Each structure stands twice: as C-alpha cells, then as structure tokens.
Amino acid sequence: MQARCFAERWPLRTAFAISRDVRTEAQLVVVEVRGEGVVGIGECTPYARYGESVASVMQQLRPLFAEVAAGLDRTLLQSRLPAGAARNALDCALADWEFKCRGAVFTGPESLPSMQTLVIDDPAAMAVAARNAIAQGADTLKLKLDDQQVYQRVAAVRAAVPAAQLVIDANEAWRADTLVDRCSQLEELGVAMLEQPLPAGDDEFLGTFPHPLPICADESCHSREDLPHLLGRYEILNIKLDKTGGITEARALAEEAEAQGFQLMLGCMLCTSRAIRAAWPLGERACFLDLDGPTWLAKDVEFPLRFGAGRVYWS
Ligand SMILES: [Mg+2]
C-alpha cells in the first residue's frame, strides 16, 4: 500500500463570514492510498482555531506513510495521530479503500436533510438571505452570529421567515454575563438550538442555569475524551470528522454520546462533496444536519452531491 498527500485550494463563490474570521477559499489536504489496484481518497480541512494549517497537517501525515506501506490500518492509526484534520484525511482514505476493496455497494440513505448556513451580515441583509433560502426550499437555517446585534439579527430573520426552523451558531463569541438573557430571547423567537455560545474554556458556566433551548457543543467537542466535560452542560454534540480525526472515532463518539443521553448534530467544515460522503454513514443518527460546506464552493469535485430543497442527494 502506498500513500501520499497533497494540498488543494477551492475558491468560494462568496465570502464566508463567521465570528472569528472571513474566508474566501477552502484550503484542504487530500490523502490518497493505493494498493491492490484500488485507490482510496480522504480529505480534511485544517483549522487554525485548532492550531492546524495545511503545512502542519502534511507534516503530521508524511512520517506515517511508511507505516501505511507496512500495513498500518485504521485501528492502529487511532493511537498514532491525535484527533484532528490529519488523522481524518488518512482514516477516511483507508475507509474508502477498504470499502472499494470489498466491492461493497452504497446502501445508505439516498438523501439527507441539511440546514442552510447564513453568514454574518446586517439584520436586513440576513433577512433577505433567509427569505431567499426558504424560497429555494430550505426549511432549517443556521445563522452565524458574533457578539453584536444578536437580537436584531435573529428578530429580523424570524420576521422574514416565520415558519422556518432556526439554529444559531455563535462560534464562541458570546460571554457568560449576557448568555442567560439571550437564551430566553432566542427561545421567545422560536430558535430551535444554540451552538457553542461561549469559548470552549468557559463551558462550566453552561451547567449553572436551566437551558430554555438546547445548547450544542461544537468547538468544545472533538472526541470521546471530551464527553465527561460536556455532560450536564450541553444537550447536543456537533460531530465533525475533522475534529474526531475520521469516521472511525466519529462512529465511536456517536455511539458513546447517545448512550450518555446526548442528541447528535452532524456538521462539516468548508469542504468538497468528498468530505460529506465520508460522513454520510452518521447522517441518520443526527437530529440536526449541517452539510452545506460544498455549496459555498465556486466549483465542487467531479461527481458532486446534489443540494436542493433543504436536502442533499447522494447521486
Ligand atoms: Mg459551529
């Protein structure tokens, strides 16, 4: 078995603004494994928030390729790299290779629901974006917010799309002293769920008040190691393969989290359809799905997923 990795840049069709930065392209690392005439492919999106870059991820991966040649499998891989983007690309490449070697055929659901993300903008512009997304068939919208104009933005969107399911993602931008009041306001506006309001280091505060709406861990939840810290503080966990370090740990995390009473969200980074296909096996277990990463790209991979009317279609 031979393995290699390379970087790819995918321009976005429009800027992607969240609380911590604005991005204009997706920078990926792709791993390709080749053996017995079969090629397996996995991709990852290195994320600066977690100390990752394209260069650091390639540096993590390259020393492992000799071990892959010597028979490193997914089970052994779990202890050779920490949870994160590098392990994700290699784990998914190996899983893809195994699947193809078995001659297995796709038996998953033909489509999955997916929310549509609205990036940060002024309230009127977010209301217009919301109305457009609903007109195109979306039924759940995820609003990216920072610490400014929270009520104004959500109220404007709610007035524009009274029947839509709304999810808020603050990407760690809020503070504890305003959180309790904001949660009540969001509940009154009929928001279904709030994702990662506080910095990951401030999770403890979430255990100190009753939540009027469910709160979901994203930046605070990477792998099973985080579960003891999340219990009693979050109701929902956002599983992303770039955080778990691949589908192997993602399945294990999903299992263990459900056993502990958490609900699941399945999320993604800015990515191509390859990354969404890799996460597909977890789709039916999640109550919230945020799989619209590829819709932000100006151009997707060959054989892309199809997105439309609030769903994503395998073929
Ligand atoms: Mg998030």
TrEMBL record:
Single GO molecular-function term?
L-Ala-D/L-Glu epimerase activity
Domain annotation Mandelate racemase/muconate lactonizing enzyme C-terminal: ranges:
123-216
Keywords on record: Isomerase, Magnesium, Metal-binding
Establish whether keyword Magnesium is in the entry.
yes
Query: Highest taxon of the source?
Result: Bacteria
Q: Which family does it belong to?
A: Belongs to the mandelate racemase/muconate lactonizing enzyme family.
Name of the protein in its database record: L-Ala-D/L-Glu epimerase
The organism named in the record is: Microbulbifer spongiae
